[in-house]
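I'll show one example:
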Amino acid sequence: MSVTMSILKLLGSMALFLYGMTLLSESLQKVAGEKLRGFLSSMTSNSFKRVLTGLTITAAIQSSAATTLMVVSFVNAGLLTLAQSIGMIMGANIGTTISAWLLALLGFSGSITSFTIPLIAVGFVLKMFKGKKRKSIGDLIIGFAIMFLGLSMVQSSVEPSFLEYVKNSINGFSDFGFWGILLCVLIGSVLTMILQSSAAMMALTLVMVNSGLNFELGAALVLGENIGTTLTANLAASVANTSARRAALGHSVFNLFGVFWVLLLYRPFLWVVANLVALLGFDNPLTEGASGLSVLCSIAMVHSLFNVSNTLILIGFTNQIVKFVTRMIPGKPQDEVFKLQYIHHGPLSTAELSLKGAKGEILHLVEICHKQFEIARDALGVSDELQFDELNAQLDNYEKVTDNIEFEIGKYLNDVADGDISDISSRRIQAMFKVIGELESIGDSGQNIGTILQRSFTHNSTLDTAMKAKVKSMIGLLFQGFEAMKKNLELGYENLLDISNAQDIEQEINEYRNNLKEEHLKNLENRSYNYASGSFFMDLINECEKVGDYMINVSEAILEIK
C-alpha cells in the first residue's frame, strides 16, 4: 500500500472516530439537555461545587470542549461570573480524563470492537421509534459504537512499517534528553490544535504507546494535548464579549501553568504516576517488560493526575487568576450597547443551551428600549430646537438598533428551531419570537414620540409645563413597567408564577390615560389650551399607553410557555 493511501486511511479512520465522539456528545446533551442547563447554572455557590459541576457534565457528555464552550457561552450571556466559569473549566479538564481511561481499558480490547456492529443495530432500532428521547438514545449508542470502531480502524489502517517508523522517530527524541521531552510537548500541542480534539490526539497517542512508544515521551505528548485543547475555547470566545474572552484565557492559564510545573518536576511526576498505577495492580511503566495494558493505563493516569493535581493547586487561587486575565484583557471604558452582546456564533449543540444566549440578548434589548425612553423623557424637557434635534436623532438611532437586534435574534432562533428540539424548547422559541416583536414595537413607539414632539416644534404648538409634567408621569409608569417586564423575563417560565406585577402597572397606565383623556376634553371645552397642542399631548399619551400594552404582552408570552 502506498504512503498516500495509508495517510488517507488514517485520516478517514480519525474522522470516523471524531464523528463517533461528536455524535455521542451531542446525543448525551439532547437526552439530558434541560437538566444539564439547570445543573450548570445552579451549582456555582462555591469552588468545590463549580469544579464538581464541570467534572460531572464533562463526564456525562464526554467532551471537555463542549462543556468549555457552554461555560464560555454562559459567561458571554452574563449568566455566570468569571470566577464561576474558571472553577467549572477546571472540573471539565478532570472530567475529560474519563474518556482516556475508557480508551485505554476498552479501546484496545478485541471484545469491545466485536460488539460495535451489534450496538449500531440496537441504536438504529431505537431511532425508528417516534419519541425524540428514544431517537437521541439511539444516537448515543451508535456514537459510542462508532467511536470504538473508528479507534479500531485507526490501529488497523496504519501500516506496521509506517507506525514503526513514526514510533522510532519519536523514540529517537529520547537522545536529546529534556529537549526531546519539550519537542514532544510541542508536537502534542500542534497536532491537538490541528485535530481540534484532545480525545482524538489521545487516541493517536495510545495507539503509538501500544505499538511501543516510550512511556516518558508519550506522557509528554499528553502534556502537549492539554495546551492544544485550549484553542477551541479561545476561538469561540474571539468573537464574544470581554468576559467570555477572559474565561477562555483562564482555561489557557490553567493548562499552561500545569504543564510548566509538571515539566519542572517531570521525573518525580512520572514516578508518582508509576506508583499509582502499580497500586492499581498494573506493571510499573518505567520498568522494562511492562505489559501493554499497564503502559496504556499509565498514559491515562498521566492525564488524570495532571488535571487533578493542577486543580488542587490552583483552585485556591481562582481570584488571582481572575485578576490576571482581567489585567490581560481589559474592558472598554464604556460597553458598546448597539451590538449583539451574547450570541456571536451559531447555536450550541442543543436548543436548551442555545436559548440561554437568546434570553441574555432579549434582556439586553430590554435595556436598550429602557434607555430609549429615558432619552424621550429628556427630550420633553428641552425647549431649544437644536438640542431637541440631537436627542431626536438618538431616538431614531435607537429604533434602528432595536430593529437590527430583533432581526439578529430572530435569525438565531430560526437556526435553533431547525435543529432537533423538544416540545418545551419549541414553545420557548415561539414565545421569544413574540417577545422580540413586542420589544421592537416599543422601539418604534420611542421613535414615534420623537416624531410627535418634532411636529409640535414645526407647528409652533409645543406643550406647556403642565402637559410635559403629565407625559413625564406617564413615562414614569412605563419605567415601572420596564422593571416588571425585566423581572418576569429574568425569572422565566420555570419560576414565573403570575404576572400580577405587570398587570397592575398596565392597569394603572390605562386608568391614567383614561383620566387624562377626560381631562383633555374638558380643557378643550374650557379653552385651557389650543387644539393643536392638546392633540399632540394626547398623541404622546396614547403612544405611551400602547407601550404598556406591548409590555403586558411580553409577560403573557412568558407565562403561556407552560
User: Anything to note?
Assistant: Confidence is low (pLDDT under 50) at residues 333-337. Residues 3-328 form one domain. The chain has two domains: 3-328, 351-560. Residues 83 and 372 are 33 Å apart (CA to CA).
